[in-house]
Design goal:
By secondary structure, this protein is an alpha/beta fold. About 50% of the residues lie in helices and about 15% in strands. The chain has a single domain (about 1-175), classed as HUPs (Rossmann fold, 3-Layer(aba) Sandwich). The structure holds iron/sulfur cluster.
């Protein structure tokens, strides 16, 4: 079975994504989500991810946000850059996470990658698909496209059922207000 590196934004989005990939691929889940604010929320989501992957017996790899050691860095290394992105802050947010996924896939010698960002009906699905495709081509990797949106809530409910944390907002500081 071929390996795939699955960028994983959170446990709730991973449930539907994994259900579509697991019969064909040997999944390694990759945590890289420097958009999530504040630190307490970051840790809650990361812990839920770790516990869910352990529950599913899926291997994990991670890269933590640079700003975690200093809360003020969040503004300079992430949020300021995101709001100045001419394609919008979400585009920046997807791009950085997918670029880092390609870097980690190459480090691990895994040719295929995908992302749980494709699961949520609240995200800009076509932007994510196009960005991932471009990043795959630039890095000589294979982006595996799936569309788990129709089973998104089934996945969210599975995660809630086993008592794992499920977030109330997208992730960045600006999304808290919505
Ligand atoms: S709203 Fe969500 S996708 Fe957009 S920048 Fe914030 S965390 Fe990222």
């Amino acid at each position: 079975m071929q390996k795939i590196l699955l960028h994983t934004c959170c446990a709730p989005c991973s449930a539907s994504t994994i259900s579509l990939l697991q019969e064909q691929y040997d999944i390694v889940s990759f945590w890289y989500n420097p958009n999530i604010y504040p630190l307490q929320e970051y840790e809650l989501r990361k812990k839920a991810w770790q516990e869910y992957m352990q529950f599913l017996k899926i291997r994990i790899t991670e890269k933590n946000a640079q700003w975690l050691s200093n809360d003020e860095l969040y503004e300079s290394v992430w949020l300021d850059k995101a709001v100045r992105c001419d394609k919008g802050r979400c585009y920046f947010c997807y791009e950085k996470r997918l670029e880092e996924t390609a870097i980690r896939a190459k480090e691990l010698g895994i040719l295929n990658f995908s992302t749980t960002l494709l699961a949520s009906p609240y995200q800009k699905h076509e932007d994510i698909q196009q960005l991932a495709q471009n990043i795959a081509e630039l890095n000589g990797l294979n982006f595996v496209y799936i569309d788990p949106r129709k089973i998104f809530y089934t996945g969210v409910n599975q995660v809630k059922k086993i008592g794992l944390y499920s977030q109330k907002y997208c992730g960045c500081k600006l999304s808290i207000r919505k």
